[in-house]
Amino acid sequence: MVIFSEPHGPDGRDLQGHWVYAPLGELQVTGAGAYVVCHACGDLLTHISAAHLSRHDLTPSAYRQRYRLPAHLPLTSPAARARRTAVGNRRWGPAGDLRTPVLTRAHAYRAEVEARAHQRATELGYRDLHDCVRQLYRDQGQTLPEVALMLTISRRVLLRLLDEAGVARRDARFKAGRAQKKSDAV
Ligand SMILES: [Zn+2]
């Protein structure tokens, strides 16, 4: 299946010889917003996930780069994105959420930080914040400061997210505070 010839070679491959199934520089949306088209295989997906891209030996950022998509373009269909945002807000709770009326100021701030980080994680193509920190830190081997910076969260928040995600830490120096609870064995 060859869909686009511009600006590729006449046989529908790009200059590196990869087949390209959707226009470069944009995410093709179909099914009234329900699906996006994977540039690498033509599949219709609600979300071009990191797991899906691993089948093409690509990370979300390598995918964006190869197909000339903006660095922060969400790889999620508009319909799915709206659903995820709603789910994320339930899970991570925007500040002032009526379901948690006794939030202290610190809690409200933390919820706001996490909601923003969750949004960022989904925009980067991850299922949620836990999935994101798990993949960046454990699977891609990024450092704590790198992951924290990418999500604009503090190291403390990141450590808690890693604990919640069941990811063991690589470096004992960053072991969080007094709760010396050993995270799961590697
Ligand atoms: Zn694909």
Kindly summarize this structure in a few lines.
The chain has 186 residues and is mostly helical.
What portion of the residues fall into strands of 2 or more residues? under 5%
Low-confidence stretches: 1-11, 96-103, 174-186
What assembly state would you assign to the polypeptide chains in this entry?
single chain
H/E topology pattern: EEEHHHHHHH
Shape: globular
- Structural category is mainly alpha
Question: Describe the biggest sheet?
Answer: 3 strands, antiparallel
* Strand arrangement in the largest pleated sheet: 1-2-3
Radius of gyration (CA) equals 19 Å
* Ions and ligands: zinc ion
End-to-end Cα distance: 43 Å
In DSSP terms (H or I, runs of 4 or more residues), the helix count works out at 7
User: How many individual domains?
Assistant: 2
Task: Name the average pLDDT.
Answer: 77
What percent of the residues sit in helical stretches (DSSP H or I)?
40-55%
Number of strands: 3
